[in-house]
C-alpha cells in the first residue's frame, strides 16, 4: 500500500479535519491535497449517492496524480425531509451557497417541525483508489437538528447538529471532541483498519 495519499478535495476545513483525525491514529500517511496539483480540473459530483461521488472523485484524482487518492463525500440526511439535503448538502441553497445560506434554508424547511421530530444523521463515505482497486468506508452519526444555530467551530451544518447524547452542537465542541465521534472519524477508522491489515 502506497502510504502517500492525495486528498481529493480543495475544501481547506475538510482537509484540516481529516489531517487532525489521522494525526491521532496509529497509521499516518503522507497527505497531499489538490492544491499540490493545480492542473487538476474539478471533479463534477453528479452521483446520486455519497458512495458514487466519493468513488468518482477518488478514481479521477488517482488517475491524474498516479498516487493513491482518498475522497470524501458526506452530508446531512434529515428524517422529516425524507433524507434531504443528502448528496446536495453543500449546495442545498444553490450552487454558490455558503454554509450560512444552507443552514438558513434548513431552518426554514424545518420551521414547523417540533423538536422531537427533527432527527437527522451525518453520513460520510470515504473512497480509497490505489492502482486498480477501489475501497469504500462508511461512517454515520445520529442526532437532531436544533431550532437555531449554536457555536462557531467546525463548518457546514455543525451549528445545527446535536449528536445523540450531547446537549452541544458540533460547532460548540472542540475539534478533538467532534473528531472523536463524527461521521468522518468513523469512516476514517474503518480505513485505518484496512491500511493496518494491508501492512501485515
What would the CATH topology be?
Answer: Maf protein
Distance between the termini: 10 Å
What is the second-level CATH architecture?
Answer: Alpha-Beta Complex
Q: Biggest sheet: strands side by side, in what order? A: 2-1-3-4-5-6
Helix count equals 5
- Structural class, by secondary structure, is alpha/beta
> From the alpha-carbon coordinates, what is the Rg to the nearest angstrom?
17 Å
What's the number of structural domains? 1
In quaternary terms, these chains amount to: single chain
Strand content: 15-25%
For the largest beta-sheet, the strand count, sense and barrel status come to: 6 strands, mixed
How confident is the prediction overall: mean pLDDT?
90
Low-confidence sequence ranges: none
The total beta strand count reads: 6
Give the SSE string: EHEHEHEEEHH
Tell me, what is the CATH class? Alpha Beta
Global shape = globular
Helix content: 25-40%
Tell me about this structure.
This protein is 32% helix and 24% strand. The chain is built from five helices and six strands, in the order βαβαβαβββαα. The chain has a six-stranded mixed beta sheet with strand order 2-1-3-4-5-6. The protein starts with a strand and ends with a helix.
Summarize the structure.
32% of the residues lie in helices and 24% in strands.
Which key terms come to mind for this protein?
200 residues, 32% helix, six-stranded mixed β-sheet, Maf protein, alpha/beta
